[in-house]
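Reopening closed ticket. The problem is back. First fold of the pair:
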Amino acid sequence: MKIALINENSQAAKNSIIEAALKKVVEPMGHTVINYGMYSAEDQEQLTYVQNGILAAVLLNSKAVDYVITGCGTGEGAMLALNSFPGVICGHVEDALDAYTFAQINDGNAIAIPFAKGFGWGGDLNLEYIFEKLFCEESGQGYPRERAVPEKRNKKILDEVKLVTYQDINYILENLDQDLVKGALAGKHFSEYFFRDCQDAKLAETVKKILA
């Protein structure tokens, strides 16, 4: 699994802490972490939590990555931004129990963590516990297990609803404010990582036109 890490500007200073915790947990599981930044608060390429949503949607819909780890001060803004787009199901995760139940019940492909709220002594350990429970088992098995059948049915219904209620991602990218989109895709390593891993030719062409 390819797991992307995305930080917006208010919590960019924690990028290296989050990346270290994520790699420590998931790399022994055989997963790959791809850090899309922001890498520090001083980065020239600044991301808002709204742009986190745009970037996450591009990465997930193109299958350049399989999962996105993101957040903001409270995690709420990033969660709302990611869930504004098709092909993204993002949970708000504060602790290991949130992580496990979201993975098993909701079977999403992104989480938003509050990187400022309650992030004090032991914050790095809490991140490790979150990542351990998020990826410790195959996602979508249900919890408790006797609820697995209705939970899987509800997840399928949600996926079908989103197919109807959301526009095509290419249309969205072309009709959003272009400066906003370009800013979301302006990261130092975006083009290097995205075009290497993208599996959707049409979306790759849309991104090329936007960046041109």
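Second fold of the pair, where the issue appears:
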Amino acid sequence: MGKDVIVACDFSSAQATFDFLDKFTEEKPFVKIGMELYYAEGPSIVKEIKRRGHKIFLDLKLHDIPNTVKKSMSVLSKLDVDMTNLHAAGTIDMMKAAVEGLTREDGTRPILIAVTQLTSTSEERMQNELLISASINDTIVKYANNAKIAGLDGVVCSPLEAGMVKESCGKAFMTVTPGVRFADGDVGDQVRVTTPAKAKEIGSDYIVVGRPITAAADPVAAYRRCVAEFVG
């Protein structure tokens, strides 16, 4: 399993997305399609980006009763994405149902990962607003273990938790980590952040990078810097 940089294409339209992707004349970055773009453009945006030769992480964070998630994942598996996700808070049964729904008749399926706690969530908010009394680190590790039990490939977590997830769930259990910023950049609205080089050191398998690349004066140069720092 090689390390890779996933570019978060958090745009509101297909045109803005293609304007961005057209800047890449040599590379075909692994891209993340999130709720904003998917809800604006629907499945057609996934098919077109796939046709252009990009790997796709479809980031819709499903969280519902097991049967609904199973049927939804079955639909998403037909889009030929490379990775998708759900909320670990939906319980082991929901995650097991997701694996069943995502698995195609030939036994193949996209990588499936679970969101533990969003990188915008602090321990204080988690305890005061969500009434989860355990520490954020214990919660993340527990959710990761639940995902492993359910047969998922890994979790989305902050790079700051990637090491402890690997320690608890094994090195083969994947960590996909948003909340990555350049050392000289702005942290934006995320609380738990780190740099590409530090994420590599900690053990992240994939880093998800948005504005430091998409809002850069030269996005291609920013992408290459990310790849150089993280993949080497």
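Update: turned out to be a display glitch only; the data is intact. The mean pLDDT is 93. DSSP finds eleven helices and eight strands in the chain. Please close again.
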